[in-house]
Write a structure and sequence with these properties.
29 strands, 55% strand, 0% helix
Length: 376
Protein backbone atom coordinates (compact mmCIF):
# COMPACT_ATOMS: atom_id res chain seq x y z
CA UNK A 1 0.00 0.00 0.00
CA UNK A 2 1.20 3.52 -0.80
CA UNK A 3 -0.19 7.02 -0.30
CA UNK A 4 -0.57 9.25 -3.33
CA UNK A 5 -2.02 12.63 -4.22
CA UNK A 6 -4.48 12.48 -7.11
CA UNK A 7 -6.59 15.08 -8.86
CA UNK A 8 -9.40 14.07 -6.48
CA UNK A 9 -7.24 14.49 -3.38
CA UNK A 10 -5.22 12.12 -1.15
CA UNK A 11 -5.66 8.41 -1.83
CA UNK A 12 -4.27 5.12 -0.56
CA UNK A 13 -3.54 2.56 -3.27
CA UNK A 14 -3.76 -1.11 -2.30
CA UNK A 15 -2.68 -4.14 -4.37
CA UNK A 16 -4.27 -7.54 -3.72
CA UNK A 17 -3.22 -10.92 -5.14
CA UNK A 18 -5.92 -13.50 -5.78
CA UNK A 19 -5.24 -17.13 -6.68
CA UNK A 20 -7.52 -19.93 -7.84
CA UNK A 21 -6.33 -23.02 -5.96
CA UNK A 22 -9.21 -25.15 -7.20
CA UNK A 23 -9.55 -27.40 -10.22
CA UNK A 24 -12.27 -25.44 -11.99
CA UNK A 25 -12.57 -22.00 -13.51
CA UNK A 26 -13.88 -19.53 -10.93
CA UNK A 27 -15.39 -16.04 -10.93
CA UNK A 28 -14.09 -13.78 -8.18
CA UNK A 29 -16.82 -12.61 -5.82
CA UNK A 30 -17.29 -8.88 -5.41
CA UNK A 31 -14.66 -7.75 -2.90
CA UNK A 32 -14.28 -4.38 -1.24
CA UNK A 33 -11.42 -2.93 0.80
CA UNK A 34 -12.02 -0.28 3.46
CA UNK A 35 -9.36 1.74 5.22
CA UNK A 36 -9.63 2.50 8.92
CA UNK A 37 -8.07 5.43 10.74
CA UNK A 38 -8.41 6.16 14.45
CA UNK A 39 -11.56 8.17 13.77
CA UNK A 40 -13.14 7.11 10.50
CA UNK A 41 -13.74 4.36 7.93
CA UNK A 42 -12.87 5.16 4.31
CA UNK A 43 -14.47 3.06 1.58
CA UNK A 44 -12.29 1.81 -1.26
CA UNK A 45 -13.10 1.03 -4.89
CA UNK A 46 -11.48 -1.42 -7.31
CA UNK A 47 -9.73 0.51 -10.08
CA UNK A 48 -8.10 -2.31 -12.06
CA UNK A 49 -9.31 -4.49 -13.53
CA UNK A 50 -12.77 -2.92 -13.52
CA UNK A 51 -14.52 -5.80 -15.28
CA UNK A 52 -15.56 -9.12 -13.77
CA UNK A 53 -12.54 -11.23 -12.79
CA UNK A 54 -12.35 -14.92 -13.72
CA UNK A 55 -9.43 -17.22 -12.91
CA UNK A 56 -8.42 -20.51 -14.47
CA UNK A 57 -7.18 -23.28 -12.12
CA UNK A 58 -3.84 -22.21 -10.64
CA UNK A 59 -4.08 -18.69 -12.12
CA UNK A 60 -2.98 -15.64 -10.11
CA UNK A 61 -4.13 -12.08 -10.77
CA UNK A 62 -3.42 -8.77 -9.09
CA UNK A 63 -6.21 -6.34 -8.21
CA UNK A 64 -5.83 -2.66 -7.37
CA UNK A 65 -8.02 -0.59 -5.07
CA UNK A 66 -8.12 3.16 -4.40
CA UNK A 67 -9.22 4.43 -0.98
CA UNK A 68 -9.97 8.20 -1.08
CA UNK A 69 -8.83 9.94 2.10
CA UNK A 70 -9.10 13.27 3.82
CA UNK A 71 -6.07 15.49 4.26
CA UNK A 72 -3.62 14.19 6.88
CA UNK A 73 -5.60 10.96 7.34
CA UNK A 74 -3.41 7.97 8.25
CA UNK A 75 -4.75 4.45 7.97
CA UNK A 76 -4.16 2.01 10.83
CA UNK A 77 -5.78 -1.06 9.28
CA UNK A 78 -7.60 -2.45 6.26
CA UNK A 79 -10.77 -4.53 6.15
CA UNK A 80 -11.52 -6.89 3.26
CA UNK A 81 -15.26 -7.35 2.72
CA UNK A 82 -17.41 -9.20 0.26
CA UNK A 83 -20.82 -8.18 -0.99
CA UNK A 84 -23.87 -10.27 -0.05
CA UNK A 85 -27.59 -9.75 -0.47
CA UNK A 86 -30.75 -10.85 1.29
CA UNK A 87 -34.12 -11.33 -0.38
CA UNK A 88 -37.07 -10.51 1.82
CA UNK A 89 -40.46 -12.19 1.63
CA UNK A 90 -41.77 -9.35 -0.55
CA UNK A 91 -38.90 -9.94 -3.00
CA UNK A 92 -37.06 -6.80 -1.89
CA UNK A 93 -33.28 -7.27 -2.23
CA UNK A 94 -31.11 -5.84 0.53
CA UNK A 95 -27.37 -5.56 -0.21
CA UNK A 96 -24.86 -5.64 2.63
CA UNK A 97 -21.16 -6.26 3.22
CA UNK A 98 -19.49 -8.80 5.47
CA UNK A 99 -15.99 -8.27 6.80
CA UNK A 100 -13.77 -11.28 6.05
CA UNK A 101 -10.24 -10.17 6.96
CA UNK A 102 -8.60 -7.40 9.03
CA UNK A 103 -5.04 -6.30 8.20
CA UNK A 104 -2.99 -4.17 10.59
CA UNK A 105 -0.74 -1.62 8.85
CA UNK A 106 1.76 -0.80 11.59
CA UNK A 107 5.17 -0.74 9.90
CA UNK A 108 3.83 -2.22 6.68
CA UNK A 109 3.78 0.85 4.47
CA UNK A 110 7.46 1.86 4.51
CA UNK A 111 9.08 -1.48 3.73
CA UNK A 112 12.18 0.18 2.25
CA UNK A 113 13.15 2.19 5.32
CA UNK A 114 15.63 -0.34 6.67
CA UNK A 115 17.33 -1.18 3.38
CA UNK A 116 20.86 0.18 2.90
CA UNK A 117 21.37 2.99 0.40
CA UNK A 118 22.90 1.87 -2.89
CA UNK A 119 25.19 3.64 -5.33
CA UNK A 120 23.65 5.70 -8.12
CA UNK A 121 23.48 2.66 -10.42
CA UNK A 122 21.38 -0.47 -10.02
CA UNK A 123 20.16 -3.18 -12.33
CA UNK A 124 18.45 -5.09 -13.53
CA UNK A 125 15.60 -3.59 -11.51
CA UNK A 126 13.19 -6.04 -9.88
CA UNK A 127 9.67 -5.20 -11.09
CA UNK A 128 6.37 -6.42 -9.72
CA UNK A 129 6.04 -9.74 -11.61
CA UNK A 130 2.35 -9.03 -12.23
CA UNK A 131 2.85 -5.61 -13.80
CA UNK A 132 1.53 -5.14 -17.33
CA UNK A 133 3.86 -2.33 -18.46
CA UNK A 134 7.38 -3.83 -18.60
CA UNK A 135 7.19 -6.98 -20.66
CA UNK A 136 8.98 -10.22 -19.85
CA UNK A 137 12.45 -10.24 -21.39
CA UNK A 138 12.97 -6.46 -21.04
CA UNK A 139 15.56 -5.50 -18.44
CA UNK A 140 15.67 -1.99 -16.98
CA UNK A 141 18.75 -0.64 -15.17
CA UNK A 142 19.51 2.71 -13.56
CA UNK A 143 22.89 3.56 -15.11
CA UNK A 144 23.35 7.17 -13.97
CA UNK A 145 21.96 9.49 -11.31
CA UNK A 146 23.65 12.88 -11.17
CA UNK A 147 22.74 16.26 -9.72
CA UNK A 148 22.75 19.09 -12.27
CA UNK A 149 22.58 22.82 -11.87
CA UNK A 150 19.62 24.55 -13.54
CA UNK A 151 19.36 27.80 -15.44
CA UNK A 152 17.52 29.94 -12.91
CA UNK A 153 17.39 30.30 -9.16
CA UNK A 154 15.68 28.28 -6.51
CA UNK A 155 16.15 24.65 -7.56
CA UNK A 156 18.52 22.05 -8.88
CA UNK A 157 17.86 19.11 -11.18
CA UNK A 158 18.62 15.44 -10.69
CA UNK A 159 18.92 13.50 -13.95
CA UNK A 160 18.47 9.73 -14.03
CA UNK A 161 19.36 7.61 -17.05
CA UNK A 162 17.74 4.22 -17.49
CA UNK A 163 19.00 1.53 -19.85
CA UNK A 164 16.21 -0.54 -21.42
CA UNK A 165 17.51 -3.82 -22.86
CA UNK A 166 15.52 -6.27 -24.98
CA UNK A 167 16.75 -9.78 -24.14
CA UNK A 168 14.27 -11.51 -26.44
CA UNK A 169 14.39 -12.37 -30.15
CA UNK A 170 11.37 -10.15 -30.96
CA UNK A 171 10.78 -6.39 -30.99
CA UNK A 172 9.19 -5.12 -27.77
CA UNK A 173 7.41 -1.81 -27.01
CA UNK A 174 9.46 0.82 -25.16
CA UNK A 175 7.91 0.76 -21.65
CA UNK A 176 6.57 4.22 -20.86
CA UNK A 177 6.89 4.06 -17.06
CA UNK A 178 6.75 7.06 -14.75
CA UNK A 179 9.52 7.84 -12.25
CA UNK A 180 9.34 9.51 -8.85
CA UNK A 181 12.09 10.42 -6.37
CA UNK A 182 11.36 10.45 -2.64
CA UNK A 183 13.84 12.31 -0.45
CA UNK A 184 14.87 11.46 3.11
CA UNK A 185 12.34 13.93 4.57
CA UNK A 186 9.46 12.17 2.79
CA UNK A 187 8.93 14.68 -0.03
CA UNK A 188 8.20 13.21 -3.47
CA UNK A 189 9.16 14.70 -6.85
CA UNK A 190 7.79 13.51 -10.19
CA UNK A 191 10.24 12.98 -13.03
CA UNK A 192 9.85 14.46 -16.52
CA UNK A 193 10.74 11.92 -19.21
CA UNK A 194 12.81 13.07 -22.16
CA UNK A 195 11.01 13.07 -25.49
CA UNK A 196 11.81 9.77 -27.17
CA UNK A 197 11.78 8.88 -30.84
CA UNK A 198 11.96 5.09 -30.59
CA UNK A 199 8.70 3.17 -30.12
CA UNK A 200 10.20 -0.32 -30.10
CA UNK A 201 13.18 -2.04 -28.51
CA UNK A 202 14.91 -4.17 -31.11
CA UNK A 203 16.21 -7.64 -30.13
CA UNK A 204 19.54 -7.67 -28.26
CA UNK A 205 19.82 -3.87 -28.31
CA UNK A 206 19.57 -1.35 -25.48
CA UNK A 207 17.98 2.09 -25.41
CA UNK A 208 18.79 4.93 -23.00
CA UNK A 209 16.07 7.26 -21.71
CA UNK A 210 16.48 10.12 -19.24
CA UNK A 211 14.25 11.55 -16.52
CA UNK A 212 14.74 14.94 -14.83
CA UNK A 213 13.60 15.81 -11.29
CA UNK A 214 13.46 19.36 -9.94
CA UNK A 215 14.67 19.37 -6.33
CA UNK A 216 15.25 22.15 -3.77
CA UNK A 217 18.76 23.55 -3.52
CA UNK A 218 19.04 22.15 0.00
CA UNK A 219 18.74 18.54 -1.19
CA UNK A 220 22.03 16.57 -1.03
CA UNK A 221 20.75 13.41 -2.69
CA UNK A 222 22.34 11.04 -0.16
CA UNK A 223 19.30 8.97 0.77
CA UNK A 224 16.70 8.67 -1.98
CA UNK A 225 14.00 6.22 -2.96
CA UNK A 226 13.26 5.78 -6.67
CA UNK A 227 9.71 4.68 -7.45
CA UNK A 228 8.74 3.48 -10.92
CA UNK A 229 5.02 3.61 -11.69
CA UNK A 230 2.43 2.57 -14.26
CA UNK A 231 0.34 5.61 -15.14
CA UNK A 232 -1.80 3.82 -17.74
CA UNK A 233 -3.42 0.81 -16.06
CA UNK A 234 -5.66 2.71 -13.64
CA UNK A 235 -5.38 6.35 -14.76
CA UNK A 236 -5.53 8.89 -13.17
CA UNK A 237 -3.95 6.79 -10.41
CA UNK A 238 -0.31 5.70 -10.65
CA UNK A 239 0.38 2.08 -9.78
CA UNK A 240 3.84 1.35 -8.27
CA UNK A 241 5.69 -1.41 -10.15
CA UNK A 242 9.22 -1.08 -8.68
CA UNK A 243 10.96 0.72 -5.83
CA UNK A 244 14.56 0.86 -4.58
CA UNK A 245 16.92 3.00 -2.54
CA UNK A 246 19.66 4.98 -4.26
CA UNK A 247 21.74 8.16 -4.04
CA UNK A 248 23.29 10.63 -6.47
CA UNK A 249 26.73 9.71 -7.78
CA UNK A 250 29.80 11.64 -6.69
CA UNK A 251 31.60 13.51 -9.44
CA UNK A 252 35.05 12.21 -10.40
CA UNK A 253 38.03 14.32 -11.46
CA UNK A 254 39.36 12.26 -14.34
CA UNK A 255 40.71 12.68 -17.86
CA UNK A 256 37.97 10.31 -18.98
CA UNK A 257 34.69 12.23 -19.06
CA UNK A 258 31.53 10.14 -18.64
CA UNK A 259 28.34 10.87 -20.60
CA UNK A 260 26.76 7.42 -20.48
CA UNK A 261 26.92 5.51 -22.82
CA UNK A 262 29.81 7.65 -24.11
CA UNK A 263 33.26 8.03 -22.56
CA UNK A 264 35.37 10.95 -23.74
CA UNK A 265 39.11 10.94 -23.14
CA UNK A 266 40.68 14.36 -23.65
CA UNK A 267 44.24 13.79 -24.90
CA UNK A 268 45.04 17.42 -25.66
CA UNK A 269 43.42 20.82 -25.85
CA UNK A 270 44.59 24.37 -26.60
CA UNK A 271 43.03 27.81 -27.05
CA UNK A 272 43.94 30.53 -29.57
CA UNK A 273 42.45 33.92 -30.36
CA UNK A 274 41.20 35.01 -33.78
CA UNK A 275 40.64 38.66 -34.67
CA UNK A 276 38.07 39.16 -37.43
CA UNK A 277 36.05 42.24 -38.41
CA UNK A 278 37.08 44.14 -35.31
CA UNK A 279 36.08 41.41 -32.84
CA UNK A 280 37.80 38.49 -31.14
CA UNK A 281 36.84 34.88 -31.53
CA UNK A 282 38.42 31.96 -29.75
CA UNK A 283 39.34 28.64 -31.31
CA UNK A 284 39.58 25.57 -29.11
CA UNK A 285 41.59 22.70 -30.58
CA UNK A 286 40.74 19.27 -29.22
CA UNK A 287 42.17 15.78 -29.55
CA UNK A 288 39.65 13.24 -28.25
CA UNK A 289 39.13 9.50 -27.96
CA UNK A 290 35.41 8.76 -27.82
CA UNK A 291 34.28 5.32 -26.74
CA UNK A 292 30.68 4.21 -27.03
CA UNK A 293 29.38 1.16 -25.19
CA UNK A 294 28.26 -1.55 -27.59
CA UNK A 295 24.65 -2.18 -28.66
CA UNK A 296 23.22 0.95 -27.02
CA UNK A 297 20.93 3.26 -28.99
CA UNK A 298 20.40 6.96 -28.21
CA UNK A 299 18.26 9.47 -30.09
CA UNK A 300 18.53 13.15 -30.96
CA UNK A 301 17.11 14.14 -27.56
CA UNK A 302 20.07 12.61 -25.73
CA UNK A 303 22.25 14.86 -23.55
CA UNK A 304 25.09 16.84 -25.14
CA UNK A 305 28.51 18.21 -24.25
CA UNK A 306 28.49 21.94 -23.53
CA UNK A 307 31.69 24.01 -23.42
CA UNK A 308 31.60 27.36 -21.61
CA UNK A 309 34.43 29.85 -22.08
CA UNK A 310 35.11 31.75 -18.83
CA UNK A 311 37.50 34.67 -18.23
CA UNK A 312 39.78 35.22 -15.21
CA UNK A 313 36.99 37.07 -13.36
CA UNK A 314 34.51 34.21 -13.72
CA UNK A 315 32.42 35.77 -16.49
CA UNK A 316 31.04 33.46 -19.16
CA UNK A 317 32.20 34.89 -22.51
CA UNK A 318 30.51 32.33 -24.75
CA UNK A 319 29.45 28.74 -25.09
CA UNK A 320 29.08 25.98 -27.65
CA UNK A 321 27.00 22.80 -27.40
CA UNK A 322 27.96 19.69 -29.36
CA UNK A 323 25.88 16.54 -29.78
CA UNK A 324 27.06 12.94 -29.60
CA UNK A 325 24.73 11.97 -32.44
CA UNK A 326 23.94 13.40 -35.87
CA UNK A 327 26.01 14.92 -38.67
CA UNK A 328 28.10 17.39 -36.62
CA UNK A 329 28.63 15.06 -33.67
CA UNK A 330 31.77 14.74 -31.59
CA UNK A 331 34.22 12.26 -33.09
CA UNK A 332 37.53 10.72 -32.11
CA UNK A 333 40.63 12.54 -33.30
CA UNK A 334 41.49 16.21 -33.84
CA UNK A 335 38.73 18.79 -34.14
CA UNK A 336 38.10 22.42 -33.31
CA UNK A 337 35.36 24.47 -31.69
CA UNK A 338 34.91 28.17 -32.48
CA UNK A 339 33.50 30.43 -29.74
CA UNK A 340 31.72 33.27 -31.55
CA UNK A 341 29.59 36.16 -30.30
CA UNK A 342 32.01 36.75 -27.44
CA UNK A 343 30.67 39.10 -24.75
CA UNK A 344 33.71 41.38 -24.79
CA UNK A 345 35.66 43.29 -27.42
CA UNK A 346 38.97 43.00 -25.56
CA UNK A 347 41.56 40.26 -25.85
CA UNK A 348 41.30 37.84 -22.94
CA UNK A 349 44.03 35.60 -21.57
CA UNK A 350 44.11 33.01 -18.76
CA UNK A 351 40.86 31.49 -19.96
CA UNK A 352 39.02 28.57 -18.40
CA UNK A 353 36.70 26.12 -20.14
CA UNK A 354 33.93 24.45 -18.14
CA UNK A 355 32.83 21.14 -19.65
CA UNK A 356 29.20 20.26 -18.89
CA UNK A 357 26.75 17.54 -19.69
CA UNK A 358 23.68 19.44 -20.90
CA UNK A 359 20.13 18.11 -21.07
CA UNK A 360 16.96 19.88 -22.18
CA UNK A 361 14.09 19.46 -19.72
CA UNK A 362 10.53 20.83 -19.72
CA UNK A 363 11.76 23.50 -17.30
CA UNK A 364 14.80 24.54 -19.35
CA UNK A 365 18.40 23.44 -19.57
CA UNK A 366 19.97 21.33 -16.82
CA UNK A 367 23.73 20.98 -16.83
CA UNK A 368 26.27 18.97 -14.84
CA UNK A 369 29.86 20.16 -14.46
CA UNK A 370 32.06 17.31 -15.65
CA UNK A 371 35.50 18.95 -15.94
CA UNK A 372 37.21 22.33 -15.64
CA UNK A 373 40.05 23.03 -18.09
CA UNK A 374 42.46 25.81 -17.09
CA UNK A 375 44.63 27.51 -19.70
CA UNK A 376 48.31 27.50 -18.73
Amino acid sequence: MIYQNSTQGPVALVAMLVENKGSMKETLPSLQIDGNSDKKVYHGKRIAPVDEVTLEPGEIKQLYYAIPLENDAELKSLTVLNQENFVQADKTVIDFSIGRLAIQLDGEVAKLSNQPALSGTIGPIAFDPYNKLVQQGVEVSLVELHMHGAEGDGYQTAVAKFKLENKTDRPSPVPNFLAELRTSNGSSYAGARQTTAAQELLPNLSYVVGYSFNLPNSEKGNDLVMNLLDGQLAAPYQIPIASFRTQVQAEKDSDVLEFYPFEVKMNFWSMSALFEQGRYKYKMNLDLDIKRLDNIVVDQNFSKMKLELVDSRGRVLGSETIAFTGVNRLVSGSQSVIFENIKTEQFEDNLTVNVYESMDTPFGEAKRLVKTLVQR
